[in-house]
Design goal:
two-stranded antiparallel sheet; mainly alpha; 6 helices; 122 residues; 2 strands
Length: 122
């Protein structure tokens, strides 16, 4: 496996934009995706949030100022474990190719446990 982090100042693994990222970590990624599928990911969100939010750790794909821990847990619950695992897998397989052109809006309803991606056209 390639060295993922060389310095504490990196915001992502060195190879996240390469096609080798997913395959060099396949067993680790599949294990985490399986956990997300089965549990919905709430525990993972809570653990990472508790560890990193106060420090506002910089990492690609995360903006601490946009969503509270509760928002993130609610979104994960509304999406459901299987859907969240698919989204995470797609990002792991091709982060560089899948992060542009994402939907403009995510609307979720905690009482109905639904989430919708919305593309806004000008």
């Amino acid at each position: 496996m390639a060295i993922a982090f060389e310095t504490k100042f990196q915001s992502a693994p060195l190879d996240i934009f390469h096609d080798t990222f997913f395959f060099s970590r396949l067993s680790l990624i599949e294990s985490r995706l399986d956990r997300i599928r089965k549990t919905g990911g709430r525990q993972i969100i809570e653990e990472v949030d508790a560890r990193e939010r106060e420090r506002m750790t910089v990492c690609i794909g995360m903006r601490w100022d946009l969503f509270s821990r509760q928002d993130l847990c609610d979104i994960a619950e509304c999406l459901g474990g299987p859907a969240l695992a698919v989204i995470c897998r797609i990002l792991c397989e091709d982060y560089g190719g899948r992060t542009s052109g994402v939907p403009d809006l995510l609307a979720w309803n905690t009482s109905k446990k639904t989430a919708k991606f919305v593309e806004v056209k000008g």
